[in-house]
Specification:
heterodimer; A: 178 residues; alpha+beta; five-stranded mixed sheet; four-stranded mixed sheet; 2 helices; 9 strands; flat; B: mainly alpha; Rna Polymerase Sigma Factor, Chain: A; Arc Repressor Mutant, subunit A; 0% strand
């Protein structure tokens, strides 16, 4: 009887798994992906040659090293406009921006909040203007890649706010869109 | 667009397009979220296009593309783990596939079906990543053990063991919550 029950349950599980749905891609997704691949793939190949010349190990596609210190002052929200680092993005073309947080010691339970202007989205969080992470930092440099997509030509400022133990720092990144 | 670039794109498209649906589903099964699946698919195409010369010489581009996708997925996971920076949202947004489930015009049956898949979704989220991927590739997508071995580089014995444990755990959860009677 037990064996019979097991067999029925196994069959029910198999049936459920076999029919477990996967979504269809959005209309036009394949075409868009092909176009981006042929465009960005060519550019990465060119970048690779350039970087080989410089002997750099930095990966292609990295837009910016945002070298901020968690307990240091650069680049903070209070900086004058001209001192804010910026990048130029192409409309609808994802681009990875790396934030580097340098911490003097390991930090547990820090909170990171990324605020986005209207025309910029974080890949994976369409339509969200503010995304928060609970995070831990190692002693030394901690890398956070943000894959950004400009969905309108407006651009604006991305703010990354790191909070820990009643202290916080906000970093700014200007986005221009072409 | 220059003639060379146009020809490259045509050659590339001819090689990869027949595998799009299978690769998209693989991306979905690996990532578990639509946005991440689409990113993974996109990254694969960018990488593959950069290796077009290599790709044209390959007998089974489908298997090669699947392996590259799997490696991209694993690299991304490792990079993520090394950073010790993680999102609280990770793993808490299941159901993209279920939300897109088409109805069969019987609301009661639709609802039951949706509830069963939500329960399965939740049960799968309780498995380790290795177990979840193996059971989805084998039992849902129909990959053979040998194909999973080639894709993941995991020995067949380990795959079998993961499959057995994954099914047992899923059954336990789904019997307990009444999804499987």
């Amino acid at each position: 009887m037990q064996t019979e029950n097991n067999s029925i349950e196994d069959q029910a599980l198999q049936s459920l798994l076999q029919d477990y749905p996967a979504p269809e891609p959005a209309a036009g997704f394949y075409e868009q992906a092909l176009t981006r691949a042929t465009h960005e793939g060519s550019r990465r190949q060119r970048n690779r040659w350039l970087m080989t010349g410089f002997g750099s190990a930095v990966a292609a596609g990295i837009a910016l090293w945002f070298v901020g210190g968690f307990f240091f002052a650069t680049p903070e929200a209070t900086l004058p406009e001209a001192a804010i680092p910026g990048i130029t993005m192409t409309l609808e073309e994802p681009r990875t921006v790396n934030l580097v947080f340098a911490s003097a010691s390991a930090l547990e339970s820090a909170k990171l909040t990324v605020s986005l202007p209207d025309g910029v989205e974080l890949a994976g969080f369409p339509g969200q203007r503010e995304i928060s992470w609970q995070t831990s930092l190692n002693e030394g440099k901690n890398l956070l890649p943000l894959r950004l997509i400009a969905v309108s030509p407006m651009g604006g400022e991305v703010l990354a706010r790191l909070e820990h133990d009643n202290r916080d720092r906000t970093f700014r990144l200007r986005i221009d869109v072409t | 667009m220059s003639s060379d670039r146009h020809n490259d794109r045509l050659a590339f498209e001819r090689l990869v397009r027949p595998h799009f649906d299978r690769l998209y589903r693989l991306a979905w099964r690996l990532a578990g979220q639509k946005s991440q699946a689409e990113d993974l698919f996109q990254e694969l195409l960018i990488k593959a296009y950069g290796k077009l010369d290599e790709l044209v010489a390959i007998d089974e581009p489908g298997s090669w593309l699947a392996r590259v996708m799997y490696n991209l997925f694993i690299d991304e996971r490792r990079r993520f783990a090394r950073q010790r920076l993680h999102t609280v949202e990770e793993g808490s947004m299941p159901g993209d596939g279920i939300a897109g489930l088409s109805g069969d015009e019987d609301p009661v049956r639709d609802n039951e079906r949706r509830e069963r898949y939500e329960a399965l979704d939740s049960a799968l989220a309780q498995l380790s990543e290795e177990h979840r991927i193996v059971v989805l590739l084998h039992d849902t997508e129909g990959y053979k053990l040998k194909e999973i071995q080639e894709l993941t580089g995991t020995p067949v014995g380990t795959i079998k063991s993961r499959l057995h444990r994954a099914r047992a755990r899923l059954k336990e959860i789904l019997v307990q919550n009444g999804t499987i009677l």
